[in-house]
Every structure is written in C-alpha cells, then in structure tokens.
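Weekly sync notes, structure subgroup
Attendees: PM, AL, DS (notes)

Item 1: joint prediction request from the bench team. They want all two components modeled as one assembly rather than separately. Inputs as received:
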Amino acid sequence: MRVPPNVSAAAYAQALAEFAQAIGGEWVFTSDADLDLYRDAFSPFLNEPEERIASGALAPLSTEQVQQIVRIANKYRIPLYPISTGRNLGYGGSAPAYSGSVVLDLKRMNRILEVNEQHAFALVEPGVSYFDLYHHIQEHKLKVWIDCPDPGWGSVMGNALDRGGGYTTANYRNHFDSHCGMEIVLPNGELLRTGMGAIPNAQTWQQYKSGCGPWIDGIFSQSNYGIVTKMGFWLMPQPEAYQRCTVSVPRYKDLLPLVEILNFVENSRITSGFPDLESPLLGYPPVGQIQLWNETGPPKMSAEQLNLMKGTKLGYSPQIEAYGTRAGIPYWRLWLSFHGPEEVIQAQWRAAQRHFARIDGAKFAVVDQVKLPVAAQQATQYHEPELGVPSLRAFSIGARTPWNPTPSKGHMWFSPIIPRSGEAIIEANRVFSEAAKSLGMPLFTTFTLPACFWERAFIFILATPVTEDPKTNMHYREGFKKLIEIGGQHGWGEYRTAPVFQHAVMDVYSFNNHALQRFHATLKDAIDPNGILSAGRYDIWPRHLREKT
Amino acid sequence: MRARRIIGSLAAGVLLLGGAPLAVGADTLAPRYAPGRAVYEKWCAPCHDPGIIHPGTHALMTKYPGGSRASGAITAWTDLPVSYVTFMVRHGISVMPQFRKTEISDEELASLAAYLARNTPTR
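Output from the run, pasted for the record:
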C-alpha cells in the first residue's frame, strides 16, 4: 500500500478506515491499479521517478461527505488534492501537485442543481462536464447557451477555477469572470458561501456577484484555500443568428492597425464573438480551424510560396509580400464572429467594415450565416464551441493523422500573456523563436499568432509535445522552464500552467521581493494551518513544506 | 473561399463515412448490449464515432488502412476482444487518457467491452 509523505502507515490505515466509514469502502481507492488511473496522462515526467502520483483516492457523493473527509484529513494530517472531472490535460490532469497526496475525486458530485432560463444562469457541482450541462439544456429545451473550451468533457467548475476560456461572446469567454457565487468547504471542514449566498435564504446568489464587503471568490481559483462544491455561472440567452466574417489585409505591416482596430471594435462591442487571427501567406491557421487542418490537411501551397516562407525573418520578406500581392494571398486574415438578431449583426458588420476599411487594400467576406439554434450534428460543420456546442475534436492535436504519422503522448501548453498589439506579436515571435532555436525546442515553423480569448490581452500559446522518451521530455521540460524565465524578463507571465511548472511560473510574479507569493503563504497558514489541502498548487506550500522546497 | 472549401469537403467526408450516429440502428442491437452502448455513447462516441471529425477514428483509420478496420470506427470492428477494450480504457494510448472508475465503473466497463466485442468471434 502507498502511504502519503510524512504520515505513518498506522495513521494512514486508521484514516482510511474512517474515510471508508464516511463515504463507503468502495469509494476509497488504495490499490496500485486503481491509483494508476489518477496518473496525469500527459505528464512530462511520464514513467520517471519524479512523476507526481497519488497515495490514495476518495470519491465522495455530497458536500457533507467532503466535510467529513476534510475533518478526518486534519486529524491525521493527510494531504488531499481535490479534482473535479480530472480532465485538465496539458495542465496537470488528475494527478496531485504534491506527489503522494490523496486525490479527492469529485466526479461523482455531478448534479446540475439549477438551470434558470429567465435569469440565464446555472448552478452546478464539480463533476458536471460541459457535455452534461449541454445535454441537460437540450433535453429540457432551455433557451440558453453554455460557453465551453475545446475539451467538452472538462468540468464547468474546474475549468473556471483554473481560469480557462471559451469561444462564444466576450462576456462569457472568461469562465472565471462569468461565474456568480460559490459554496466552499474550507480546510477546517466549515461551509462557506460567497457573494449574496452569504445571506441565509439568499434570493440573488446567482444574480449578483460580489455581495457586500471584500469579494473573496478570486482566492479560490488557481489555489488551495478551499474545496468548491457548488458554483454558479451566467449563461448567454440563445442568440437568433450567428455570422462569421473575415477581414483580409495584404501587407506585413498591416498587422499593427489590424489588431488596433480589432481592439477598438471589440471593446466598443461592435463585435463580441471570438476573434481569430490567421496568416494565409505564412500558412498559420486560426485557432478555431486547427481541427480542420488536422482532419483534412493543411491548405495546399505552391512550391514558390513554401520556398519563400523558409526565407522569411520574423515572418517577413519583401519577396513573399510581393508574391502574396501577385497571387492574391493575404498576409493576415482576421476572423470575426457575431451572435444576435440578424438586423443587429448586419449593422455591426457594416460598422466593423467601416473601421477596418482604413487599412489600404482590406478585403471583406461573409463566410457563414447560420440561423440558430442548430442541432449538434449540424454544428460539426463549424468549430463547435463557437456555437456553444461541446466536442472533443481538438484532441486531433498530437493524434495520429495522415499528416502526423508519429502521434505524441500529449502536450504541455506554454501560454504567456502578451499585450494585444501587433508590435507585441512580432516581439514575442522574436524573443521566443530565438530562445526556442537556441534551446532546441520544436515550437516554431515560420511565425506564430496568438489566441484572442481575452478582450484586453493575447495568449501566445505554444504546444510543447510530450513523448515516450524520458530524455526528450527532460530536454523539453528544461527548455519550457527557460522560456518561462525569458518571458518573465520581458514582463510576460503565464496565465495558467501544469503543476510541474507552477514554481517556475510563480517565480516570475516577483514584484517587491515576491510580495504576492508571501501574501499567498500568509493566507495559506491562516486558512489551512495543518496544510492538508493541495500542497504546492500554484506554488502555494503549507509552512511545514515551505522550508523543504 | 478556401475556408468554405475546407468545410465543404469536410461535410462531404462525414457523409461518405456515415456521419449519422450509430444509435439510429438501435433496433437491430440485442437488448443485452444496450447498457454497453450507453457507456460507449457517453464516453467513447465523441472521439470514436464514424468519420474523420472524431480524432480516435481518424487515428485508427490512419493506423490501419485497408482491411476490416479501415473505417476506424471501433463499433464496426470484428477483431476487438473484451480484454483489449478493458486494457485501453484503463491505460489509454497516445493522446487518449485512461478512464477512472468514477467515470467508467468496472461494471460499466464490462458492459462496454461486451458491446464493442459483440462482432468479434471468441476463440
């Protein structure tokens, strides 16, 4: 039997007996075979001694059972690591941050407590996936949309708590921002409700976010201060129509005004759907079409274009620009999407074109016009999440296809936040492509465009493969850490990362001698004095482990 | 538009490969396999239903061109023993992760494996 660190075998056996009494013996997992199911399937430490593993797993069915588990864990100082659906692949999966912890698997807590059509919100438990919530809404014919990330099996709550993003309109794409109200089991077993939920018999728990007094919801995301057992989310009323359009521009330098105008039209709500950047000339796909490229292959290019691409520097050469002009291939293309009444969409699109028209040679096209709702089957003609439909199609990334004969074992996302400007895109390409080249990291082809999930900043996402070869994985891990450090030197930091990189990432957030990290530690000691909860998550360690790390 | 062409050819591909969900043919399925099919539809279908828009199917089509596995759709395979299904669900392969017992219980896995192995002759 595996035993958690700093716990005697006898104390652990006693704790396990009490856990079994609280939740039923069949939901206490201790065998190697059962615990191997909690390994991070995309671990960059695959089959190495440093891979983070679980000493046990507990699967409660209710908030009361979570409270009981937490009280027992305090008594025996058992390190716990809560997961929701355990599908945070690329960011740690179902494995604990502190190896040897007991995973608290909340997948069985999968009740959709309410979907309110009139006030457009949902209240869910941790085990509810985007698929579950979508199917529930469809079955009950409710006229509301979810906003989902690419992996539809992810937890609605878990994704928000790890501050993930989606693809519909700006108000909903930031999943943490679109939450409203939480219920939390604190590390001492006490139950807390935030926002208006702190009022007994609250009438607006899911309608007003902050309640009164300090608004503490943020400290329960990317942290280890409590176990969230209920969480509310604002949903979008089902729009009448969806339209996807493109703005294509001919010259390299057009990237600067293209992004500048995008910011204006988006922040003015002239457009609010997911914007997406592409370079037809450099063969770089928009985020929402990566799955199509994996499925049907990259677009065909002439030998001349491919050859010219190789000769570009930071994606530029006068020759390729001239070729693009000659062949009618735009340097950049911005995809804009609109959701709403048809007549509003047309007016918005007209206004957007008026603004983009100040770029000389800008061309406009309407690619898709869809009357909503669409059935899930019809949505497969599009990037499903942009129509509020969950899917697993993005798992074509790294999977075997005719264009990828050597499938990976997963990937780790290097995802720094950079300013939302054309200059920053070029600068990030310069800094990271030079670094990746010197580190031998296979991250760049010619030029990389960022993802536009957030309205006020870009995520410069680079997928780093995980392989079956420990030597290669070690090389990529070390390179990944170096990239984090180099990003930090330029004032850029990750928005989210897997446990193996959380120390390196948080180390970048070091203003005033790590004042932020010291504050996190102060909170940790006050809220979780025995340090039982998710030790090490986002580099927040309990006192007894801080000195050791 | 190039993007239109991609989407157009994709839709055609789905049609050719039989994009309709398998459940449509439910009538012919022996009732004892219904629980296994329900597990398949919840956990496997998003990656393994027919057509290249399902990454598991596309990977298997690419891996096994020609022959009885060529469609890549595991629901149609005739050489998929129970032990193989059980192993894959609990171990995963490539970008497919393993599944925990809180997702697919041992009992559900047994019914899933029986469903997927229904066309496979037992030795």
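Discussion: Chain B is about 50% helix and 0% strand.
Action: AL to compare against the crosslinking data before next sync.
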